[in-house]
Amino acid sequence: MRVNDSIKIVLRNLGRSRTRTILTSIGVLIGVAAIVTLISISIALNRSVVEQIESSGDIKVVTVFPSSINIEEMQNMTVRNIDSTMKILDKENLEKIEKIDGIEAVSPVFEYNGLKFELSKGYNIATLTGLLPNKIKYISGELEKGRYLTNSDKYSVIVGAKFGENFFDKNTKKELKVDPYGKNLKVTLQRFINGEIEKKSYTFKVVGVLKSKGSMEDYNVYAPINTVISMKEWVANSSINPDVTGYSRVIVKVKDVNSVEYVSKKIQDIGFTAISVQTIIKAISNVFIILQFILGGIAGISLIVAGVGIVNTMTMSIYERTRQIGIMKAIGASNGDILTMFLLEAASLGFFGGIGGVLLSYLLNFIITLISPYMMQGIKINVVAPFYLVVFAIIFAIIIGIVAGYFPSKRAANLSPVEALRYE
Known about the structure:
This protein is an alpha+beta fold and 424 residues long. It has helices at residues 3-16, 18-56, 71-75, 79-85, 91-98, 136-139, 225-236, 242-245, 260-270, 277-320, 322-330, 335-375, 387-413, 417-422; strands at 61-65, 103-118, 122-131, 143-146, 156-159, 167-169, 175-176, 184-193, 196-210, 221-224, 249-254, 273-276. It is elongated, with a radius of gyration of 35 Å.
């Protein structure tokens, strides 16, 4: 029997039991639509999160933290060799990092959190981030206006794009929006010495405003690192030397985005923890890949249930067409022809259900895209099913149909022509 003859017979048989065919295909349709829609949502969420991360941070920046050792390592160490094994970000190790190929700038970070910056009418609570003045232009971001800090600056600062949007009126405590550029910010520190409170004021001139990064760094204030250290020293009433005791973190700016992974690996080889935007993106993507498998597996269960419906449909079809099978065998159809015909019928149920499921998923994806801003606080998620997922879903539906229809088809192929012709 020719393949085109088999296809004609299959289509004619499916058309005869149209209601049963539609109901069986709907089961496959729901399973395919669930798989494509859920995985498409996961892919869209992953893409949205990655885009937000990329827009909120410089993808060429690597943040370096001191090394840490786990509990198992500590159990096998004495206090002395723990001290010798722990890696700190001191001057010597900073020099090692600077020698790595592909690095544009390296700066230790020294922060003073929760400082009150005062203007004549209002105040702002922000973090004062100390960096090497000659490295700030590489690390802090692009300027909106003004200039970067230089080595001769001591009480000059540059501020994030949204620093001026977070001020409060001193009297009414209402929010204020100010343009900090060119203004003097007053910071007052206090300490306890011999039971008495001492105060010291610093005045910082805003010499530059950065372009928005879309992150919390937009609210930061950047100053020369030695100025921030001296402020901490005054409050602590003791000297601080991070070049010896180590910094809490170091920021590394890489020349080329393609070198970020290489630089991160070299820093880790020295013994430090290196985190970049790419590291975060990779970790998040791995989580979403696992999520896609979980969602696909859950949705796949409904497709397997639809396969049970195909088994039922094919079994009923064989009972109804037993005499037809006998006639076909009597005029020369082989077991293989009968098997092929019924497998094509089962595959067709999967195929039509798969096509319908893909079309339904497109509709659902469109609706989800439209309503996503209302569900995600204004963030629009563009849910689109990738082509490979559509092809996979249709092929998977066909496979389910073939597997589900194999045993009924095998039974039909093995029917005796004589017994089939006797069947009423």
